[in-house]
Structure formats: C-alpha cells, structure tokens
Design a protein that fits this description.
Layout (H helix, E strand, L loop, with lengths): L2 H11 L4 E5 L2 E4 H10 L9 E4 L4 H14 L2 E4 L5 H7 L2 E5 L28 E7 L7 E6 H5 L2 H8 L6 E3 L7 H12 L3 E3 L9 H4 L5 E4 L4 H11 L5 E5 L7 H7 L3 E8 L3 E6 L6 E2 L4 E5 L2 E5 L6 E2 L8 E2 L5 E2 L2 E3 L10 E4 L4 E3 L2 E3 L1 H8 L8 E8 L3 E9 L5 H11 L8 E5 L12 H9 L6 E2 L2
Helix pairs in contact: 1-2, 1-7, 2-3
C-alpha cells in the first residue's frame, strides 16, 4: 500500500489527529491530506523527483505527492542541487513548495482516493549517499523493500497512532527520512524540526513519547529529559554504535533503547531491543564471510541510480554486502560488528567513503597525494581527516574545493601534511599506517592551519 494511502486512511478515521509539527506550524491528518491533494506534481508517472526544500513539512507534502503520482522522491540539500541535476536522471526538480491547485487546508473532501495502482516492485524511495569524485550516488528502493518493513519497526519500537515521534534531524538523511515517513504511515504525530536543535528539546520532550535519532544525539536528549521530564519511553537509535553507558543512562530515565544496524543499501539488518546484542531483524538472514557481513532479506535496495559504482555487492543468490566487518557469526548468537572493511568513516550517523573524498582533493592543483581517514571524536564518533603529502596548497584553497564539490559530511574537519606518505609494497598509500602514526602523535605529521 502506498504511504499516501495510509495517510488518507488516517485522515478519514482521525481527521483531527495532529500529523506533522514543523518549524512553521502544524497540520492535522485531514489538513495534510488536503495539502497533498491540492498540491499535485505537475507530471504523472514513474520517474525521479528531486525535492530541494528547506521546510520539513513542505518536504513531506512533496514526498506524499510523489507517492500519489507513482514517482520516486529524492530528498536533497540545496548545495547538492546542481550536482544532482548534472549527474542523476531527474525528471522533475521541486525547489519551491508545490503550487496549490485546489482548496489546500480548507474544507475540501478528503477523498478522492489513491489513483495509482501500487506494485511491490515500484521504485518509491531514493536516498543520496556520497559518490565517487564528488558526484551524488543515489540508492533506490522498491515499495516492498521500503514500506514492507514498517510493521516490524512499529512492533520493535512500539510505535502506534497515539504516539508523538520526534525526528530531530534533516530528512535528507536516510535514517531521519525513513523515521518520519514510517511514523506517518503508523498514524502517529511526527515532530520534524528539520535539523538538530538542542535549544528546542525542552519543548519537544514535553510531548514526545518516541525519539528516532543517531547515537551521538541520545545523551543530549537524556540530559534534557532529566531536567524537564516528559513522556518519552522509547529511543529508536541507528547509524553507529551506542555511546558508552548510553543504554544504562536511558534505563535510569525510564527510556527503552532499541538500537539497530543496517546500511542505506541494505536497510535493516539487525536490532538490539533489550541490550543483549544485535539479532537479525525480522525476515533477515545473516552470514559473515571472510569477516564481512552479508544479508539476505526483503528489505535490500534495488541498487544505485544510473548504474553508479559503490560499496554494495551481491552474489547472485539474493545476498548483499557493503563491506562491514564482524566477528564469526553463529545463528542464535549476537552479531558483533568490527567496523567497515573499506575504511569507511562513520561520522555523526553518516557514512563517508575515503576514496570519494580523495578523488576530489587530488584534483586540486599542488596536491601530490592524499590519504583520508577517520579521527576519533567524542560526539560524532569520527571526523573526516585529510593527510596530504609534501607541501600542499593553503588550507583555505583546499576547503574551498571541498565546499564546492563535497557534501557536508564528506568535508575534512582536520587537515595535516607529511613529507612522504607511507606506502604499501604496490606503491599505494598505507591508510592504516597513516592512521596509526597520526594517533601516535608522529611529529613528522604537521597540522595545517
């Protein structure tokens, strides 16, 4: 069933239930559905619709309009617009709120119903990941892989129509985008500030019963909850490992933590609902082959738009991997992750592939060679760190290129230089050795200021 159809059903059954609460105001389910009907896409049929809007409520109205039209929505940031348009086969770009062609927000009938015949193989959701040479790479999902997991997520987190779900981050993130759309499908009230706003938590937590967020944000939520109280009972947490003692801190506050592991390409792979370790998500099979995690499930993505290259690999038998590492796995035992085999950097819930950043910065005149690694960070997990060989260009020049060609999560936050990069026997820069020398305070590696 399209998500738009579920929103319509909520509008019929509980028209006055608040649906969306954003920075600019709120909409009930009846008002939300009328907005969707009154602001249709100017084209019908299957295709990729890039949505570059700043207000999260406008974003979700456009997402539902795309779903109603049978198109594939792709949320992106304003600074990604030009690269998306130049790289991906976008059929329509929505960068201003869809114009109203009917009685939006008025007393128009909640019907008519869904006009698109849904199919489980329809492509209904796309999400950007960082692409090579700074080009956007979009993962696309079928209706079955996208919305089919909703009932399992609702059961794990206990999310229902009476909940208020706080989604405290940008919807262009696959985690936050999924969280908002899932909560709408469940008929809950969804609070979408559009970005992380610590100053707003005091108000938000007075009503939120569930929060869906990345791990490094959880301690701040629990700190505010301790000060102001509130009905929060569940934290749905994904994107990276939990901070130390976060689950114990949550338990003291009366908050149940449901953590999960997955990837944009693989969706949900495993979940930990009680602190005993990651177990396969419903309908997921897990194998660890030569130290790499492989999964087979109905939730796997269809692939990358336009045949882009990325870490996703399949074996022809329905199994997929993105190179994450784990200890040997036995069914019935917890899955114990060890990180990314390709050196990918987990920073603030986003995954950055170092080679993608290196490919962009190697093009800067004066750059001889470069290695990108992750450096530990107490809140973000890691930050992207660049180590350049020889006498590189000024940091300001490097940062200007990074701002113009890399997404925000990909841009290095720390910059260093070294006379000669250590290399493997084949002549490639030895990424692991660079990281070890930097962590050990090698005096030959100097910071760029």
């Amino acid at each position: 069933m399209p998500v738009a159809a579920q929103v319509q059903r909520h509008a019929l059954e509980r028209p006055h239930q608040p649906a969306l609460c954003g920075p600019g105001g709120s909409l009930t389910y009846a008002e939300l559905w009328r907005e969707v009907l009154a602001r249709p896409l100017p084209v019908k049929g299957k295709g990729l619709v890039a949505i570059t809007l700043s207000d999260p409520v406008d974003q979700l109205v456009a997402v539902l309009a795309a779903d109603l039209a049978g198109a594939t929505p792709l949320l992106c940031d304003g600074d990604q617009r030009a690269r998306v348009a130049a790289t991906l086969p976008v059929d329509l770009h929505v960068d201003t709120p869809l114009p109203a062609t009917g009685a939006a927000g008025g007393t128009a009938e909640i019907t008519p119903g869904i006009t698109v015949e849904p199919d489980g193989d329809d492509l209904v959701w796309a999400c950007l990941t960082s692409g090579s040479t700074g080009s956007p790479r979009a993962v696309v999902r079928t209706r079955r892989s996208w919305a089919g997991s909703f009932p399992h997520v609702s059961a794990l987190a206990g999310i229902g129509a009476d909940d208020v779900v706080l989604v405290p981050g940008p919807l262009v993130s696959s985690l936050y985008g999924f969280a908002a759309v899932h909560a709408l499908a469940a008929g809950a009230t969804v609070v979408v500030p559009g970005r992380w706003s610590p100053g707003s938590l005091t108000v938000q937590l007075r009503r939120a019963t569930v929060v869906h967020l990345v791990p490094h944000r959880l301690p701040a939520v629990l700190d505010v909850l301790e000060e102001v109280g509130g009905p929060l009972r569940t934290a749905m947490v994904g994107g990276a490992a939990l901070p130390p003692h976060a689950r114990e801190m949550a338990a003291r506050a009366g908050v149940r933590v449901v953590s999960y592991y997955g990837a944009t390409e693989m969706s949900f792979v495993a979940a930990d609902a009680d602190g005993t370790g990651l177990r396969p998500f419903p309908e997921v099979e897990i194998q660890v082959r030569d130290g790499e995690v492989w999964a087979r499930s109905p939730w796997l993505a269809e692939g990358y738009v336009a045949g882009a290259k990325g870490p996703m690999k399949t074996d022809g038998a329905g199994w997929m991997s993105v190179g994450d590492l784990a200890e040997p796995y036995e069914p019935g035992r917890p899955l114990r992750l060890r990180g990314r085999g390709d050196g990918a950097i987990q920073t603030g819930g986003a995954t950055v592939v170092p080679e993608d950043v290196e490919a962009v910065l190697r093009d800067v005149p004066g750059v001889r060679d470069i290695v990108v690694i992750g450096s530990p960070h107490p809140q973000l997990g890691s930050v992207v760190t660049a180590v350049l060989e020889g006498s590189p260009p000024p940091r300001a020049a490097l940062e200007a290129v990074a701002r113009g060609r890399l997404d925000a999560a990909q841009r290095p936050r720390r910059w260093y230089a070294v006379g000669d990069l250590p290399r493997t026997p084949t002549g490639k820069p030895a990424r692991g050795l660079v990281a070890a020398r930097l962590a050990g305070g090698d005096p030959q590696i100097r910071r760029l200021v």
